Amino acid sequence: MTNDPLKPATIAAQAAGATDGETAGVVPGIHLSTTYLRDPDYELMRADNKYGRDENDTVRQAEEVLRQLEGAAATLLFPTGMAAVAAVFRALPSGARVILQSGIYWGTIKWVRDFCARRGIILEEVDAADATALAAACRSSADLVWVETPSNPWLKVVDIAAAAGVAHKAGAILVVDATAATPILTRPLDLGADIVMHSASKAINGHTDVLAGVLSCRDVASSIWQAIAMDRHDAGAIIGPFEAWLLLRGVRTLPLRVERMCANALAVAEFLEGHALVEAVLYPGLPSNAGHAIASRQMSGGYGSLLSVLIKGDRARALDVVGRLRLFHRATSLGGVESLVEHRHTIEPHTGIPETLLRLSVGIEDAGDLIADLAQALDVH
Ligand SMILES: *Cc1c(COP(=O)(O)O)cnc(C)c1O
């Protein structure tokens, strides 16, 4: 035996060694208690368990699996992805300067704009996939740089190592929303990021039945991480034990699901790119994509399950294609085992999303079935 760390497939399948100590069950139980016992001398029977607000063994087990997959020093779960986003920004002092990648997940942009306006935080939005533009924004000192790669729904790729370099020179920490990549394809902390965030509601859980968010850090002692951890404890933005247990269950198959979803997404992207009624396909796995070279460097094992496609024609034509799909569910979200399609312009009409853009989240179904479904939907009837 060497001391090499275990590989992701092993960490995930065995839930980082979590079993049930009380019953000897292979699968750990769900710990629902909100409070913990003291002995006759009034000492806590377990020093790390006092009250359930953020002291819960089921939550800790789920966090430990994600910590190991991420190669992180520490990991904290939150009740949603947005609660994890908010936890980072709430840790900033008033008057801070923040650089936010433009054109990313709309929920993040909207909340960050509102929050920064309320809190007197200077916000600059920049296309971080353009390394020159990001470097220019980082010429003045800053506190936080926030990027999302691959981005949703444009599938732009940010060079994490380069972003970390310019962010650190500006005195800022780099936070990466790697939801579309998952910890299986990209480990941003290894590339120089300070904190990585995921909406665990997406591929990490993977079964479209849990809302959760996660933050992992490289340096537990950093002031921002200390502030985030204290705020979660004091303000109580915690995940419930049942959700944490479902995550622990879902994540066991994450490497396997990601592998199949990436293969399917690439097959779907290649089919669509060659289709006469398709204007363009946005997917970092395609050599034609502007981010392909960077994605090939910083993603290993695939390019993710998310892609966008621009349909030739107009809004009505794009909606017609959506309406004809039989296997792709018409629904928002991404990263689940079942494929989804979304007409993003309908959801966020004022943010510059083309009316012909369809966002696909490719699941683990048979790739041939998915392609046949798209082929019949694209067919002019
Ligand atoms: C879904 C998503 C979020 C928000 O996560 P929730 O769990 O829905 O709150 C943040 N970032 C990205 C990239 C997402 O796809």
TrEMBL record:
Keyword annotations from UniProtKB, A to Z: Pyridoxal phosphate, Transferase
Q: Name one GO molecular function term.
A: pyridoxal phosphate binding
- Per the UniProt record, one Pfam family is Cys_Met_Meta_PP
**Highest rank taxon of the organism:** Bacteria
**Which InterPro entries does UniProt cross-reference here?**
Cys/Met-Metab_PyrdxlP-dep_enz, PyrdxlP-dep_Trfase, PyrdxlP-dep_Trfase_major, PyrdxlP-dep_Trfase_small
N6-(pyridoxal phosphate)lysine PTM sites in chain numbering: K202
| Cofactor(s) it depends on | pyridoxal 5'-phosphate
Q: Name one GO cellular component term.
A: cytoplasm
Q: What is its EC number?
A: 2.5.1.48
Q: Name one GO biological process term.
A: transsulfuration
The region annotated as signal peptide is none
| EC class name | transferase
* Family (UniProt): Belongs to the trans-sulfuration enzymes family.
Q: What is this protein called?
A: Cystathionine gamma-synthase
